[in-house]
Design a protein that fits this description.
The chain is an all-alpha fold and 321 residues long. The chain has helices at 21-46, 72-101, 105-130, 133-136, 142-167, 171-175, 182-208, 219-223, 229-255, 260-282, 287-311. The protein folds into 2 domains: 14-175; 177-321, no CATH class.
Length: 321
């Protein structure tokens, strides 16, 4: 729906006249901080420190709990909570500034949605702690694991949306004029769907600690692990799905090959992610490799979100922005 003239000073369908540098810098800085928050959360999961504190939102009833600077599990969890709080404040600032300065209604709505996702993220993290079996008793931990998985997936969605909001204040967004081909746009949708599926399977695998590590370097064993049971099935979906999703990403990148500035980052991130995945299989006890694998995967997913949005720049409601 075209934006009415009274709401902005340029013709409907063209968004604001030019990028707003201040909004771009604010969003970009928040995006960089969000990646650090994801790294902190990923490391916390990798060392099984999610329940270093049994309460929430405070840690042992304090914002400065004893031992958090000297004990690695407490440091990982509490630093993640503190960093996430700063991220929430930054996203609120983004929404407030958009409400005051951004003339494009859809972009303002995306900023408001970003705040909603961050608030949801905090709630999911809190429920993961409060409903853990260490707090509620019992032998199973389905509730806590379910909220932890949702927390992990929502983190990826939040990062992707933040990347899109940042993109819409960039020169790249405003200068994108030539429409992409139909097959390029379709390939982007397929690649994004498949990568998100791999993200979900990875979250399920990490939060449930489903691992069927293999020592063989044969590709068939790496992407089609031997075994049985639910843990094996989740690993199979994640690893084999990553192979299929990787091919889809490459296909999307090839259809947009004339734009090397967009193609090369996807190809580089995809190659790096595959290498990190293989290393994490070979070094299952190394939390740093698995954490970097998670972060690079999130950056790949966010970059793909940006590239697919650019491919659809002249289509549908995106053409109004």
């Amino acid at each position: 729906m075209p934006v009415s003239l009274p709401e902005q000073s340029v013709p409907a369908g063209h968004g604001s006249a030019h990028p707003q540098r201040g909004l771009f810098v604010l969003c970009l800085a928040t995006l960089a901080w969000a990646i650090l928050v994801l790294q902190a959360g990923g490391f916390t999961t990798s060392i099984h420190a999610g329940m270093a504190f049994l309460d929430w939102p405070l840690s042992n009833g304090s914002v400065n709990p004893p031992g958090w600077l000297t004990e690695i599990d407490k440091f990982a969890e509490h630093s993640h909570r503190l960093a996430a709080t700063v991220l929430g404040l930054c996203c609120i600032a983004i929404a407030v500034v958009h409400a005051r300065r951004e003339p494009r209604r859809r972009v303002r709505q995306a900023a408001y949605l970003l705040v909603a996702l961050v608030v949801l993220q905090g709630g999911l993290g809190g429920l993961r702690v409060l409903l853990d079996k260490l707090n509620i008793g019992g032998t199973g931990n389905l509730k806590a694991v379910s909220f932890a998985t949702a927390h992990a997936v929502n983190a990826q969605l939040t990062l992707g949306l933040l990347a899109l909001v940042t993109l819409m204040h960039s020169n790249t967004w405003f200068s994108a004029s030539s429409p992409s081909s139909l097959r390029h746009r379709r390939a982007g949708k397929i690649a994004l769907t498949l990568v998100f599926g791999v993200v979900v399977m990875g979250a399920v695998m990490r939060q449930n600690h489903f691992t069927s590590w293999v020592s063989s370097v044969k590709l068939a064993d790496l992407f089609l692990p031997a075994g049985e049971g639910l843990g094996w099935a989740i690993n199979l979906l994640h690893r084999a799905g990553a192979l299929v999703a990787g091919l889809a990403v490459l296909t999307f990148a090839m259809f947009g090959a004339r734009r090397l500035s967009r193609t090369l980052p996807l190809a580089f991130l995809l190659g790096l992610q595959v290498i990190l995945g293989i290393i994490s299989i070979q070094l299952p006890l190394n939390p740093h490799v698995r954490t970097v694998h998670l972060v690079v995967g999130a950056v790949l997913f966010s970059t793909l979100c940006v590239q697919v949005a650019l491919a659809h720049r002249q289509e549908g409601f995106l053409a109004e922005l």
